[in-house]
Every structure is written in structure tokens, then in C-alpha cells.
From TrEMBL:
Classification of source organism: Bacteria, Pseudomonadati, Bacteroidota, Sphingobacteriia, Sphingobacteriales
Gene behind this protein: lepA
Residues annotated for GTP binding in this entry: D14, H15, G16, K17, S18, T19, N130, K131, M132, D133
Organism field: Pedobacter petrophilus
Protein name, UniProt field: Elongation factor 4
Domain Tr-type G: 2-183
Principal location class: membrane
Amino acid sequence: MKHIRNFCIIAHIDHGKSTLADRLLEYTATISQREAQAQLLDNMDLERERGITIKSHAIQMNYKVGDIEYNFNLIDTPGHVDFSYEVSRSIAACEGALLIVDASQGIQAQTISNLYLALEHDLEIIPILNKMDLPGAMPEEVKDQIIDLIGCKREDIIPASGKTGMGIPDIIQAIVDRVPAPVGDPEAPLQALIFDSVFNSFRGIIAYYKVINGEIKKGDKVKFINTGKQYLADEVGILKLDMSPRSVVKTGDVGYIISGIKEAREVKVGDTITTVDRPSLDSIQGFEEVKPMVFAGIYPVDTDEYEELREAMHKLQLNDASIVFEPESSAALGFGFRCGFLGMLHMEIVQERLEREFDMTVITTVPNVSYIAHTTKGDEFIVNNPSDLPDPSKLDSVEEPFIKANIITKAEFVGPVMSLCIQKRGTIVNQSYLTSDRVELVFEMPMAEIVFDFYDKLKTISKGYASFDYHQIGYRKSDLVRLDLLLNDEPVDALSSLIHKSNAYDFGKKICEKLRELIPRQQFEIKIQASIGAKVIARETLSALRKDVTAKCYGGDISRKRKLLEKQKKGKKRMRQVGNVEIPQSAFMAVLKLD
């Protein structure tokens, strides 16, 4: 056990984690020249296309330092704020973390929030200055930032470059010297923490775990403590580039188990595995529940596919434990799910994965957050969907969730960032200069305001430099109204939203204009209206598309043409009474990108 080192790599997005992981795998000869490719651990098509890590990936390396052979269990984690739940789970399975900072960009928000996650779990932090080969690198300044942040010694910071491979031997040596070996009792009853799971269509569900105490053998009867289900361990092993079977996985190691589990609901991330013969009575603590930040409805385009969508969501949840979903129904779209995501990028990725991996075409409705409504009778209940809000005459007040947002930006962008936050109903709580050029702004603002496009706007006005992190601070009363959208007097509940009274008129006008551009013209006139209760606050009209019915008349008496036009006029009248409007998916998504 004393020769095992479990560590993860944490950093802000694009600071070079995956490239550094590649160099470590090459240096320890875990992968051959033939298997090598850039960002080797990012094995999902989407990850490779977008150049981001979406899932954390575990892999074991064996390497001799001196005469002793060490087992390194490395977990590469995502850097985007939307996938921070992956990071928190990876951290729970490690004793140390490589904190990577880009030498040309310095410390950014995700660096800090991931660092705090690691410190809460008492991990040993090894600071690494990456991208030293870039001409724009500022090693001394960034070293000062790192020392301010974690209070380490200057010589503890390892300069490295994922591209050229500089500093890799020093990193390996630092992991051996500084990261503690896992602590656990090999003689105790088995306790293993599940930190991830994947679905394999041939072998069922494969759970990844870290053994805290005891050991797990092939053929053992195991039990999952939270669900209480029992299985036979058909195969156990460790994670190399592919899964590599072993007869036993010992204390402190990270491994996988295949036990023929078919049901996605039976594996919960954060559950504890123990044996049936010598069960451990208590489960392992230290796993927080996921906090979804953006809520949206996902509906199948064809209502018959509801069950397939449910299966697809369960399989996706195995692979991405941060999705939360529950069934809901809508008058316009039939049955579907209300899903919680960690952010807009996360929502986009989930939608794309459903389409690619499970061949499901889905409609995503406008994102919203949960509110608490108080009625005049004194009842209170949670409103997940704007259409559930009671009638204004029965409504006493509405509370909405507030967040505390930390924004770190360059000093020159303070003005635009502040005006953006104030425009989003934020109030500034604190402003402090971290260095002469970097400012941390702390705001309290309604969560509903950041759900749409806040993050994208923040990136735009700060030329990509501002970084953003937030947590919830509870509910507060707000003056909110429900804005409904009507197409030919029919409400479209997928497009209704709860919005602050002061923004309602503006928002209604913009959304009507946008829908007018996006809805294809029909052979009848379509009126697009935004209303609050019975009061219409904005209207646009989409004029009818006229079919040329007189094209076949050439010459002859004018009355022949008039007869056809009269007939068309009657038909148009009837059409308007029963005409249905088709709304393209782009219209649902356009609401998010109004500006």
C-alpha cells in the first residue's frame, strides 16, 4: 500500500491538464508510441471536437523510482465550471492534486474554486506552472500569485510544459515525495467508494471505485449499502488504457467491478460497496449532492418515444451523475422530463449526447429555476414551471433563489462587468484587488438572471479574461410576473417564463420580434403576442404566404381570375380558424440568445 499514489489534475479550462496527462503517460511508458494521440484520455467524440474535457478519466501507471516500483492512479478532470461535479467526485478518490496554472494567463476563477474543493478534502497540493515554453509566459509574476494563493515555498512550484515534456521527471518525483500513500486497514471489512460508472451494452453497468478498507476479490458476493442490492463480482480489475482484470483489488487502489447490473437506477455514485460475508455497517461519507443550476424541460419530438427517452436519460445519468431529472408533462409537448443541469454548456452537451449516443431527437424548452410561491391563503409551494404559477388574484408573493457570484477580472474590465451585473439586478457586496491588475468582485444576484446568457456575455465584455464562480445563498422575495406567449391566441407553455416586472415589457417585445423571424410563414396570418395575465404587452404579425392561384389563367375574362381569388379568400378564412403553427427548435433556443 505504501507504494500507491492516487492523485488528480485540477486547473482552469485550457490550462493544459490533458496534454500534461499525455506526457505523464508517455514518460511512465503506460502507453506505447502506437497508442499515443493528443489528449489521449478524452475519448468522447464531443470532447475531441470541442477540445474540452467533459468527463474525468482514471488510469493507472506503474513506474520505478529508484529500486521501488510505484502505482500511480491518475484522474484527469474537466476545467469548465459546468463540470465541477466531476471534479468533486474525482477529488474524493485521491490523496493529492496537481494544481496546474498557465504561465501566460495566471490564476483564474476555476483554479481557485477547484483548489478549495481539494483543500476541503485535505489533499496535498503540488503547484505546477505549465506552458513555460510560450513566448508570453510570465513565470515570476504567476509564481507570486500561486504563493499568495496557497502559501507554498517558491521552490515547491514546478515549472513544466505539457507540449515539450519539460519538468515531467520533477513532477513524478514530487508525487512520490509529497503525496501521502492511501491510509486504510487491509484487514478490515471491505469498504469501497463508487466515484463513477459507465454503461456497456454487452456487460451491463461497470462501476469505478476506490477501495478505502479491506480488499475485493473476483467471485466475492458484494452488496451496495445505499440500495441494499447484492451481486456477484464477475470481474474486478484496475484501469489501464483499457480495463485490465485482476484476481484481487487491494486497499488504496482504484479499480472497476462488473457484476452484470442491468438497471441504471441500481448504481449510485457515492455509494459504498461491501461484501456480504463480512459487511461493513457504515457507508463512506464525504460526497455532496449535486446542485443543479439551470433547469429545462426535455421532450421527445415524437410522444411515442417517451420510454426510450427515459432509458437514454438513465444511461446518460450513469455516465454523468450531475444530471437530475424527473417526469413532467406539458399541454403543448406531451410527456417529457424536467432536467437540472450545472450550466448552459452542460445542457448543450447533454442534448448533443442524447442525439449522438442514443439517437434521440429532443425539444429543449426555455431554461428556468425553481421558485417558491406564497398564496393569499398562506400556503407555499415550489414552482418548477412558469405554467404552474397560481392565478395573480390568488398569489401573495414569489420568492426566487439568489446566488453569491465571485468574478475575477482584469482591472480594465471592472466597469463593463459591474454594469452587466447591475443590469442583471445584482448588488455589489465586495471589491478587492488580488494584485495590481486583478480584481475580485463579489455580487449577490438572482439566479434566474444568470441562467440565460450571463456567462457568455461576461466572457464577451472581458475578452475572455473574466472568470466566474457562484453558490446559492437562499431565497428572497421578488416582484415577478408570468410572461406568456400566444400564437394565434393559443398559449405556448414551453415558451412562457417568470420574469421581473421591470424587464417584462422589454423581454416580451424582443421575444415577439425574434419569433417573427424564426417561425416559417404559413398560408394564413399568424399573430404573435406576449401577455401578462390577460394584458397583451407586445404583438408582432407574421403575414400570410399567398399561393399564386391565378397562374393557370392566361387571357380570357377577368371574372375567371376573380372567381379563383374569391375561392382562395374563403379558404384563407377557414384556414385561420383551424390553422396550427409549427414552431422550429431554433425558436425555443433563440429565447436564450435574445441580444
